[in-house]
Design brief:
Blueprint: H1 6-27, H2 38-46, E1 75-82, H3 88-99, E2 108-116, H4 122-135, E3 138-140, H5 151-162, E4 170-175, E5 179-180, H6 182-189, E6 197-205, E7 208-221, H7 222-229, H8 233-238, H9 246-257, E8 262-265, E9 270-272, E10 286-288, H10 293-302
Parallel strand pairs: 1-2, 1-4, 2-3, 6-8, 9-10
Antiparallel strand pairs: 4-7, 5-10, 6-7
Helix pairs in contact: 5-7
Length: about 325
């Protein structure tokens, strides 16, 4: 066999240069992506979405302009969505629905959490742990899972203790079959008192205009929730008044104690979706009875939640 001549090495030199310039850098992990899954980055790039890399601005001798401080919110609201561990698909829909909503005006701090009683099943516990790690929006109360046997009381009475360090102005209870338009609710709360408030879809009964609010969703002020978990607890528990239709029970607690005197009825802007799904309102605050994906889809279409999807070769939607 003939030894290689110096000329043959000249042919290999360009290949070596290509290897050094293009291949080796791609094999080194990027320091900005340590601990991340590269598949997500690749998919984002292929789809044309920006990834976590940013381009630094050219160096300048002048200091950067001072950043403006974020304005303080006018008020704060905790929204508790009562649900059950098995309704994982529903939670995915609801999370996405709230994430795509525009920020409320007036400026408000609105926190949304899914509310459970004790999770006893190991499978549910494992899957719920994933949601906690990924989303951090789970609240598990010390009670047996139920609908009308004390879960609402457990939620409202526990909130002042659980969030004592960062209290809210208002606390809302709603369900996972209700679509709440947060910006519209914020407009309703703007200018309302911060104390002794009870707001929702008011029911008339026994000659009274609003003895209680419909269970699709209602708001109480922080002082009312504090009373439920404090001074009012002994009286409520002594009467065993946590068992029964939860919306009726809340109205009963407040009526007997003379609480929630600042009452606000938001109907017809809060309502049940009818069978034909044709009673939507453009000024909706909350629409209830979204019991299946078909009704959620109709709701999203009406409020243009699904509008503006960029065209792409990667999907073809009707």
């Amino acid at each position: 066999m003939k030894p290689p001549t110096p000329t043959s090495y000249l042919f290999l030199a360009p290949l070596a240069i290509l290897l050094i310039v293009f291949v080796l850098p791609s094999l080194r992990p990027s320091p900005s992506r340590a601990g991340t899954d590269g598949l997500g980055v690749l998919c984002a790039r292929r789809a044309g979405f920006p990834d976590s890399l940013s381009v630094a601005a050219p160096a300048s001798d002048s200091p950067p302009p001072p950043t403006q401080p974020e304005p303080e919110p006018e008020f704060s609201l905790l929204v508790g969505i009562l649900t059950m561990p098995s309704r994982r698909e529903r939670r995915d829909i609801v999370r996405t629905a709230y994430a795509l909503q525009p920020p409320p005006t007036p400026r408000a701090r609105v926190d949304v959490r899914f509310v459970f009683c004790n999770v006893a099943d190991p499978v549910d516990a494992a899957l719920l742990s994933l949601e906690i790690k990924r989303h951090g929006d789970i609240l598990v109360l010390d009670c047996a899972e139920n609908m009308n046997d004390g879960k609402t009381y457990a939620y409202l009475s526990a909130v002042p203790r659980l969030f004592a360090s960062t209290p809210y102005d208002y606390v809302m209870k709603t369900d996972d079959d209700t679509y709440l338009r947060v910006a519209e609710l914020a407009k309703e709360l703007r200018g309302k008192p911060r104390e002794d408030v009870y707001l929702g879809y008011g029911y008339a009964m026994g000659g009274q205009p609003m003895p209680f609010m419909h269970g699709m969703g209602y708001v109480v002020s922080w002082d009312v929730a504090t009373w439920l978990g404090g001074a009012g607890a002994a009286e409520i528990l002594a009467r065993n008044d946590t068992h029964g239709p939860e919306d009726l029970m809340v109205g009963k607690w407040l009526n007997l104690a003379g609480k929630g005197r600042n009452r606000y009825d938001l109907k017809p802007r809060m309502y049940d979706l009818n069978w034909d799904m044709d009673n939507f309102r453009p000024d909706t605050v909350a629409v209830h009875m979204l019991k299946d994906n078909r009704r959620w889809a109709a709701t999203f279409r009406y409020f243009n939640v699904t509008a503006g999807v960029e065209p792409s070769d990667l999907y073809h939607l009707p």
